[in-house]
């Protein structure tokens, strides 16, 4: 960029704090907010992030019940919390045993899109046992996807509105 006579300047501070650090995020609050606002697509991404952050932290990050009003999402979080505990060789937090399994099979992705029957069958066959026991179906690889994305540098288009914190300015001239 210097060859073009441009430099980058950050106009807004880089976000810091618990909302931007998966290991410190307040997941109970995050899920409550997302579910109450109907942002199911992002809530599903947060399920995967929660699983990955718990595995990276070496313990399930929800040690206390998130007390969600929606039984489907409560069952999903209980199943994922139990799944991460098993993967870490630990007992699941006691709150997970108080959550009742759903009466009917549920796939969180159906909250915002239809799923072909063949994909439903694949998802059911690849769901960790802890989630299946709650009658919630998410492919295990979907829970692991966040880990790969989490540890890579985000790439954003220069045309993205999310890049508004960076502005191109002519490089300062250096005259001798």
Main sheet: strands, sense, barrel: 2 strands, antiparallel
Number of strands: 2
Shape: globular
Mean pLDDT value: 78
What percent of the residues sit in helical stretches (DSSP H or I)?
40-55%
User: Which H/E pattern describes the elements?
Assistant: EHHHHHHHE
Radius of gyration: 20 Å
Structural class category: mainly alpha
Region (Disordered): 146-176
Biased composition (Polar residues): 150-164
Give a structural overview:
It is a single chain. The chain is built from seven helices and two strands, in the order E-H-H-H-H-H-H-H-E. The chain has 176 residues and is mostly helical. It has one domain (19-149). It has a two-stranded antiparallel ribbon with strand order 1-2. Helix 2 packs parallel to helix 3. The longest helix has 18 residues, at 40-57. The protein is globular and about 65 Å long. Mean pLDDT is 78; it is low at 12-21 and 146-176.
Please outline the helices and strands.
Layout: E1 6-10, H1 27-37, H2 40-57, H3 71-87, H4 95-98, H5 117-125, H6 129-133, H7 140-150, E2 166-170
Antiparallel strand pairs: 1-2
Helix pairs in contact: 1-2, 2-3, 2-7
């Amino acid at each position: 960029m210097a060859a073009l006579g441009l430099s980058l300047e950050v106009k807004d501070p880089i976000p810091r704090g618990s909302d931007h650090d998966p290991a410190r995020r307040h997941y109970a609050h995050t899920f409550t907010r997302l579910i109450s606002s109907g942002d199911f697509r992002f809530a599903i991404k947060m399920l995967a992030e929660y699983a990955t952050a718990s595995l990276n932290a070496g313990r399930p990050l929800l040690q206390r019940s998130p007390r969600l009003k929606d039984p489907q999402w409560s069952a999903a979080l209980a199943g994922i919390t139990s799944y991460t505990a098993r993967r870490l060789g630990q007992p699941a937090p006691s709150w997970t045993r108080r959550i009742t399994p759903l009466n009917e099979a549920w796939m969180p992705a159906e909250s915002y899109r239809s799923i072909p029957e063949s994909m439903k069958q694949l998802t059911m066959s690849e769901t960790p046992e802890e989630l299946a026991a709650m009658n919630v179906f998410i492919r295990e690889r979907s829970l692991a996807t966040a880990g790969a994305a989490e540890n890579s540098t985000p790439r954003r288009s220069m045309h993205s509105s999310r890049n508004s914190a960076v502005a191109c300015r002519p490089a300062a001239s250096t005259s001798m």
